[in-house]
User: Fold these one by one.
Assistant:
Number 1:
Amino acid sequence: MVKKQLEPLTTPMEKANFHIFPDFCKGCGLCKEKCPNDVLIWSEKLGVYGTPIVKPKDEESCIACLICEMVCPDAAIYIEKKRGKKAV
Ligand code: SF4
Ligand code: SF4
């Protein structure tokens, strides 16, 4: 039996750290669709069903609004806001 590694992949950005759990992401694209700044792009890494997961395209575009985290049906994203950085 394969043991699941419930570890996030983390991308540091200006306003937040973007964490995604590949073992939860099913590659539905909802987060990507709802992000107001088109921050998220497909990654070369694969999720639970062997489909690509998402990643931020750069470090500057994310405004740490948390929408991607809220809309993900599988709780695969955690946006860790950096102290003193407000959503715009
Ligand atoms: S926190 Fe907001 S701006 Fe940043 S990636 Fe998620 S939806 Fe996009
Ligand atoms: S909404 Fe969640 S499950 Fe769907 S692609 Fe985004 S992170 Fe993956």
Number 2:
Amino acid sequence: MQDRYDVIVVGGGPAGSMAAFNVAEGGASVCILEKDRDIGYPVRCGEAVGELGLKQFVDIQPQWIAASITDFRLVSPNGTKIDTRFAGQKGFILHRRIFDYDLCRKAASAGAHVFTKAYVNGLIFENNTVAGVKLNHLGTEKEIRSHLVIAADGVESRVGRWAGLRTNVKMKDMESCMQYSVANIDIDPNRIDFYVGSVYAPGGYLWVFPKGEKTANIGIGICGNQTDIFNAKKLLDEFLSREYPNAAILTSMCGGVPCASPLKNAVKDGLILVGDAAHQVNPMTGGGIISAMKGGSIGGRLAAESIISRDYSSSFLKKYNDFIKKDFGDTHQRFHKIKEVISSLTDIELDGIAENVQKIPESKRTLTQIFKACVIKKPSLMFDVIKVFAGV
Ligand SMILES: Cc1cc2nc3c(=O)[nH]c(=O)nc-3n(C[C@H](O)[C@H](O)[C@H](O)COP(=O)(O)OP(=O)(O)OC[C@H]3O[C@@H](n4cnc5c(N)ncnc54)[C@H](O)[C@@H]3O)c2cc1C
């Protein structure tokens, strides 16, 4: 480990690896500091991604793919099932353990130095500018200096806060999640299932994502401000014993997903936040892998430019906020508002919508047709969605 790098990346998830890859490609020296023992493990994710999203950044490797997804099923509170086929594109359930590892290898191949069991516990400041990190590496306290720090430290991010950025997520925007990886269940290996409504997952959804022969990730995310009343684990256990009584639980995990709008300002002098640390998750779906890769790539490219220009100031780095806004920030902001509309629907409204959609023949279930069916059941939805797009 050197005493100094041009750029230090905190966190070895998709955002951190993509950031480091782009910094190294841009010709600057960079290291990744990851607190866990292994890159890619433990996995805290449902592991679902869209093929098109992934293709933007990497050549998809067969060893990453646990399942190819062509269909999805939505189940409303009274059990009405809507089956739809993805038009044109497919999705994947990844093996994130292998995927994250390979992304980090890609960064290393481009020249990034990677250190695991490297827990960053503070920032170094010089003239109010972030100038490096303090860390514990394999039991030894160290300091490393840099021109820039990229915080890719995920949902539990503290780096931004240490630098004085307001990174807290409102409880209503934090999905509290619990997931089991289970074996010995009968499922369609190419279909993902979502269960919605307060009986399954208040303010969120429950998912069944197939992961190969008779196995799946089965998880639940409930709205953070419902956790006083509902217990995610209890709801998930009830679901499992009802729907898959013979399931064997191989792994279990819990975690949070920040389903907020992206941070409007994710930079400080000498610092850029990327991925979950900058609230870049798609707030409607809770999917954050692709947007973390996007945020990491944009942040990494700008960091390399900043090293070349020898300008690490927030006035230079502010471009990052504009790039994010243009690339997906505005869209995520709209998704956030749509999420709020959807989560205000009652179980009865969700059932009514599901029954209307079910009447549309499967081959004609386009987004427009589904929207029309929703509006017939709840006309005020039309105004809510217009308001979202008008930015009111
Ligand atoms: C239950 C659950 C299910 C999900 N399902 C999906 C899904 O199906 N599809 C999808 O697209 N997204 C899903 N997500 C979201 C997705 O996992 C994240 O959005 C994505 O991993 C964000 O990538 P990241 O690189 O920003 O953060 P992370 O992948 O969380 O990586 C952050 C890294 O930083 C490290 N770190 C943290 N603090 C420090 C420190 N102080 N020092 C050093 N290292 C540190 C962590 O150990 C971690 O490795 C899910 C999340 C959860 C919790």
Number 3:
Amino acid sequence: MMLEELCEEVWKCSLELPKNDLVKMTSGNVSGRDPETNLVVIKPSGYKYEDLTPADLVVVDLEGNVLEGHLKPSTDTATHLYVYRHRSDVFGMAHTHSPYASIFAALGEPIRPCLTACAMLGGEVPLGGYVSVGGEGIGKEIVEKIGHSLAIIMQNHGVFTIGSSASVATKMAVEVEDIAKITYFATLRGEPIWLTPDQVAEMANVYTNVYGQR
Ligand SMILES: [Zn+2]
């Protein structure tokens, strides 16, 4: 099996999506890019998470040619590959229709930062315009609008997250849903206290340099 370690990582990350209530049935996907070969491991299309094994994942090159796998790759493969081709710093992506983040997608609103955890994602989660599913359109919109954020809300659709690995992108998919949920309920009670850019920058520094084990 090609890229065994990366397949194992993408498989484990994929299972985190249903475990964290971010996806139902077959929706959503995770991919990872191997830094040495630039090959991408991605979830197969329309496949149930409970049936998924590392060997079911599909290995594609950056042009979308399938190099290994007995299943069709995710319908969002062109999106993932476009982002990988245009963002040399991105080695993992996740996509979900997680409900609270998708409320912002339905409303066509970015998620403004009102929690310190927002700094982990880069502050405000930007909004990408409406694009139909299947081709490179979503990828182009992500690259154009995501900026330094690790997540983007795609209008009328859902969330895409990026990161330095599939694991980071998956963690961000969980974070963005948590943040969306709290922000959504907070706005029902009144106007949240939005963070200033300085507060976001200060917290981003904490997440980068202080938080976690190293
Ligand atoms: Zn989708």
